[in-house]
What we know:
Number of helices of chain A: 16
Oligomer: heterodimer
Largest interface: A-B, 17 and 20 residues
Number of domains of chain B: 2
Strand content of chain B: 5-15%
Structural class of chain B: alpha+beta
Strand content of chain A: under 5%
CATH topology of the largest domain in chain B: DNA polymerase, domain 1
Largest sheet of chain B: 5 strands, mixed
Order of helices and strands of chain A: HHHEEHHHHHHEEHEEHHHHHH
Shape of chain A: globular
Helix content of chain A: 25-40%
Shape of chain B: globular
Number of helices of chain B: 5
Amino acid sequence: MIGRYRNWLLLGGAALILAAVVAWRLLFLPDALDFAGGTRVPLADYGRSGIAGVPEELAKAEPLARGKYLAEAADCAACHTAKGGRPFSGGRPFKLPFGTIYTPNITPDRETGIGAWTDAEFLRAVHKGIGRNGQRLYPAFPYASYTMLTDADVIAIRRYLGSLAAVRQANLPNTFAFPFNQRWLMAIWGAFFNSDRRFEPVRERSVQWNRGAYLVEAAGHCGECHTPRTLMQAMDTRRKFAGGQAEGWNAYNISGDRLSGIGQWTDAELTEYLAKGHATGRGVASGPMAEAVELSTSRLTHSDITAMVAYLRTIPPVRTKASPAMAGPAPAAASAGPSGNVPGKRIFEGACASCHAWSGRGAITSDQQLTGNRAVNDGSASNVAMMILHGTGGTPERPGAYMPSFAAAYSDTEIADVANYVTARFGAKPSRITASDVKRMREE
Amino acid sequence: MFEISINGNRRQAQVDGDTPLLWVLRDVLGLTGTKFGCGIAQCGACTVHVDGSPVRSCRLPVSAVGARSITTIEGIGASPIGAKVQKAWLDLEVIQCGYCQSGQIMSAVALLEGNSNPDDEAIDAAMSGNICRCGTYVRIREGIKRAANGG
């Protein structure tokens, strides 16, 4: 009897310890720069300038021009503008597993926007995720990243937003169900997952590296999409930049891993991608990344993009199973590709080959190259199907790479067929998506 | 100012670099044999050859042409295969309304340049991106086969 009791006790103790370890790992995550080691110091103690604020080229610019630059570096416009809506007037939906949330109006309208907010209220929202009336904000607003922005930079952004035309447009309520509609729960989330600390440079690293870190982590909030999320929806910084999701698109691994990440990209390729949204042989920024390039990275100075690249280079490699080694060149002859997917091939020959070519190297311009592209080598075919459905570019704002949307031209089955054909012909891992996958993607 | 080689001649155009080649051909240089169809590289009407490869000129920025030579429908008859295809097209009366046919001929010639005796599958693979509203596809296929067999 006593022996059995002791066994139960031991088992219970082990379970408790396990639960504690799991909870510890879920609740206590490394901060954004922990991977770099070194001594973290307050910005003022670093001794050199050039980490926060605008780059040297803009040091003498008008205050509003500086605020605009910082608002672009933080890419406020992408989320706070609805499709076809007035910039910064909000209303863009984000579909999350718990419901849909709409971004708010951040134009200076006093009733529907943030015109009546004080600077202190604005700072509190950006750094702590607390709204004007004290309500907790959902971390779809990336305050866990923005919390690293300096007060001066947040206020500069606020001044710029305040200079825009006020748009009267009421905010839309989110559709979260219980318990996710309980905003106060976000206070608990924030207590664990929002450091509420301003950017602290690493003393041993250069100004350029720290500037890059500030742009990537604080303003650019790259990790919000490119870092996988934990069960608690926090950025899993133990797998920093190992890839995540954004609005139905896969945000790929941008760690230094040579196979899964960007370890094989040259500095010039990374720079070109961030500046123009395309690096020859690496693919085109599409979906949310196309917006990030259009509205943010393409507007940064060369020195700032160089700093971001220098910082990204130092992210420790994380190998991810979903990102295999990329396939090499594809055959140029139409007959040489994968067999057994006749409908996929038919659609490819009619709708795709005239631009992408049977070799996948691009028939017209280099941005049409399919081989060597991460999306095409992704066995989930998510981004391939999303690209076929939604297309990219074709606007005066995005004059680079262009692809029409085929959503209206083909059925779900046809889009699945051609996506599967593309990954089989040009990629490392043939996909097997179905019409129901495509149906779901249409709704993203 | 861009200088490009078209049908063996050096031609100059004072346009922005992102102007599609099709606009340069039609509006600047007056070579209106190449047609505008969809403007998104989906119909094939604007097909020209860039160093012998069929390319949709509506999506090719003139700045991307560089030193490569362009052949249009106005110049295709100068090549032996081009002449054969044109003759086959006339003999079989392939054309109905004709709007897509300069693109069809350009794609057909490019196919035959690389494959002197294409089967139906190869013809489909090369020609499917050229759409014909009149539905002359059967005669197009016949025309390609006749040209392949000596015209």
